[in-house]
Design a protein that fits this description.
The complex is a heterodimer of chains A (236) and B (114). With 236 residues, chain A is of the alpha/beta class. Chain A has eight helices and eight strands. Chain B contains two helices and six strands. The longest helix of chain B has 18 residues. Classes of the chains: A alpha/beta (236), B alpha+beta (114).
Amino acid sequence: MTTPRILEVRQGLLKKNDMIAATLRAQYKTAGTFVVNLVSSPGTGKTLFLERTLAALRDRGYRPAALVGDLETDHDALRLARSGAPARQINTHGICHLEAEMVERHLVGWNLADFDFLFIENVGNLVCTSSYDLGEQLRVVLLSVTEGEDKPLKYPTLFNTADVGIITKADLAAACEFDPALAERNLHAVRPGLPLLIVSAKTGQGMTSWLDFLVDRRQQSNTAMLENRRESLARR
Amino acid sequence: MHELSLANRLVQMAEATAIEAGAQRVIAVTLRVGDLSGVAIDALRFAYDVATAGTRLEGSRLELRRVGVRVFCQFCQREVELPSVQSFRCPVCNTPSGDVRAGRELEIESLEVE
């Protein structure tokens, strides 16, 4: 009979995911690929928004690609491929979120350096997706005008981790009596200073600002990387 | 509902630690759970019973230590605890702050083994 004793552990349950994410982040940076993780509830219009984003970036001369998470089907990857950009489906088979390991596995065979942007469309879920770092440089949360302005207050954990908020389906705003000022107030209550854009992928409203924002963020990220590289060279 | 996969990870990590320490059985697990960790406590407790069945953790207690959300307030120049996750404002001076310093934790603090 042994006596009970206490073992100190102090280890995060997500440690393994975080380690893979850190490796991915380093790979994205080396390749110069700007990686964007799109999170939202189901039905916010993520796929159409992404389809139009991919096509517009190609028109501007960039090379985007997409990974799209879904519980079972490959409908979304087929839709995204219509933009002409490489697109792959990640079937999670019932798992409600993407994990870094799934992303790593689905990148095999792709050369990241061939892509200026990589979009990862997460599974539609406002809870579980927030805990898993995919190594992205930008986490985008989408909120559609049909969902109501109080979603951020109901799911503060997810909205709090976002780097930019996109209000989608702006063409339906009037019909839904959507109050943009209230939505903004709620978003800023749980994530002070969050940059916000209002778009309609269907009519194209706000898409130019969104693309400018993306290109600008990618530029900032690459500049920061080059400066770091220059500094480390200077230190040698 | 990602609590079952978290509970499975917990069991893997706890079993590995117990085996390494030469312990036969885990009696209790103490887990630190932040208010911004995205974990539903009830779902985690349910998943824990499922995940521990047939392992060295079967029948063990799950002790949860809640970790409140703390942000750094630029105006007060110190960390403050938020009374609610619906409002990221300093409870003292009402300045908004998104500079989260605690509350995302999800970690095994310790195991009681024999």
